[in-house]
Amino acid sequence: MPTRVARRPMEDIDPFANAIAPPQNETPEDREVRMQKERAAKQVSDAIDAELSKEQAYEKKRPKPVKILLLGQSESGKSTTLKNFQLLYEPKAFRAERGSWRAIIQLNVVRSVHIVLDAITRAQNPHDRPPSERSSISSQDSFRIDAELLALKMRLVSLLDVEKLLMKRLSVPGEVEPTERPMTSLSRRHQPKEIAVNSSVAWQGAFRRNGAATSNDGDNMIDWDDPDDPGVVLHSCRDDLKRLWEHPTVQAILDKQCIRLQESAGFFLDSIDAVTSLRYIPTDDHILRARLKTLGVSEHRMRLSDPTGGMSRDFRIFDVGGTRSLRAAWVSYFDDMDAIIFLAPISAFDQVLTEDPTVNRLADSYKLWTTIVASKLLQKTNVILFLNKIDIMHAKLASGIRLADFVDSYGRRPNDFDSASRYLKKQFNAILKQNSPAPRIFYCHLTNAIDTKSTKYVLAGIKDMLMRFHLQESHLIL
Ligand SMILES: Nc1nc2c(ncn2[C@@H]2O[C@H](COP(=O)(O)OP(=O)(O)OP(=O)(O)O)[C@@H](O)[C@H]2O)c(=O)[nH]1
Ligand SMILES: [Mg+2]
């Protein structure tokens, strides 16, 4: 027969039970008050539990978020496309960051000035060039750098300090790294550092004034009274900057060294008055043109309305860094994507990768596109191609740069934009047909990602299409 063991009361052995046990000398009235309180507390707790399980059931029923991954080589326009999404669907949040973009634009200006100053130095000392370039030096490479230009050069060296200051402020540990090897369309040239960022959140925080709440315009993020504000120095240099940029010798030097600064990322020297004004706040257009290289992967969430009038959807857009060394990280995002937007900057047909000057940028885009469309992980994913930077493509072809000189197969076709873009579109389509594991639709857009108006229609179309796909998958529409 089992023996009954006398049990010690819980409060003797459990310090927690001991702590919450009613006082030993509790009167019946006190007990009643306590019980009432406990009943009320339980009611609140039950209500919270019920709310939580309702939310969980709703989450389960809610459609999964629509996921979009932006891919393409560095400087193809991925982050710019993301900015367009933000401007279109979250304009308030986009504009609240104006203050942070102001600093990036200031850095972009300083970087352009460095490129110009370096070009002048090379023109002064043509024999200081690397051995690979020395054989091509001719007597015409020596320019007469007059005293005015030399004085300008000396004065603008002060901008180096502005750059250092901005870089320091941006250097949130682990989040922002100034890269040693910059990425610009100016290949084969020695260029100053380019600023790069790991995630979208931390670097913007670096410019948030202590205690300042973000306003719709983001202008209260800027401490206008700060004497160290880089805007003060830039403002004082504005006339010199304009004189430098408009100087005929400078233009001739850049021309001779094949530096097309106007077509390069983060070019603002044509907007010096605006960008160096004392109370400069970037416009939407300037933010789209600002260049900030992406290092890591950043995820952006937004809630978008349904074109059929149904419930809105969560969208997640993933922006990755496109430099070669960062591409290995892409594959871990292939799983579970609804769409890939692949950007190929077709204007880069006459350029090479900065990370490998033996590789033509268009050839690199073809190769990347082949890998993406051939991936088994992505065979059910909608793949949308943006043939981007068509504005630069137009200008290049019009200036006489011949596609056939860089793409042998283009042969004797006319060197106009329509023929060239039609041809490139066919090439990308052929790659898709030959390499896709299963037949798929070729979605292709000719885009200019710094033109908000045209990009808006393209993105709205993609959003509607993806929502429809998503609804069909959830069997919500037939
Ligand atoms: N003119 C012109 N400039 C563009 C276009 N698309 C992007 N840009 C500019 O090109 C530069 C590079 O664009 P990003 O969006 O930063 O390129 P990315 O693909 O994100 O580059 P990584 O972050 O290095 O992978 C920016 O200064 C943009 O403003 C375009 O269609 N036309
Ligand atoms: Mg980017």
UniProtKB/TrEMBL annotation:
Mg(2+) binds at residue 294. It comes from the Eukaryota. SMART domains: G_alpha. GO terms for molecular function: G protein-coupled receptor binding; G-protein beta/gamma-subunit complex binding; GTP binding; GTPase activity; metal ion binding. One of its GO terms (biological process) is adenylate cyclase-modulating G protein-coupled receptor signaling pathway. It holds the Pfam family G-alpha. InterPro entries: Gprotein_alpha_su (IPR001019), GproteinA_insert (IPR011025), P-loop_NTPase (IPR027417). The keyword GTP-binding applies. GO terms for cellular component: cytoplasm; heterotrimeric G-protein complex. Keywords: GTP-binding, Magnesium, Metal-binding, Nucleotide-binding, Transducer. GTP binds at residues 288-294, 388-391, 449. This is Guanine nucleotide-binding protein alpha-4 subunit. It comes from Mycena indigotica. The lineage of its organism: Eukaryota, Fungi, Dikarya, Basidiomycota, Agaricomycotina.
